[in-house]
Amino acid sequence: MQPQIRRLKSPGPAPGDPAAGTPAEGLPSRASGRPARDFSADAARDAVILSVEDAAAAQEAVTLARQDQDDERRAGTPAGARDSPEPGSSSAGPGTAAAGSPPPAPPAGPVPTPRPPAVPPAGGRAQGGTPAGPSRRPPAPPPPWGKVLLTTVQLWAQRHLRLRWPAQARWRVLTLLLLAAVLFGAGAISIALAGSPAPARHTRGGTQAGTGRPPTPAAIQAAAAARVAAARWIAGQVSADAIVSCDPQVCALLQAQGIPAARLLALGGSTPAPLGSDLIVSTAAVRSEFGARLASVYAPVSLASFGTGAAQTAVRVVAADGGAAYLRSLRADVAARASAGRQLLRNPRLRPSAPARRALAAGQVDSRLLTVFAALATMHRVDVAGFPAPAAGASPGMPLRVADIAPAGPGTRHRPNSMSSLARFLRNQLTPYRPEGITAVRLASGRPVLRVEFGAPGPLGLLGKG
Question: pTM of whole model > 0.90?
Answer without folding.
Answer: no
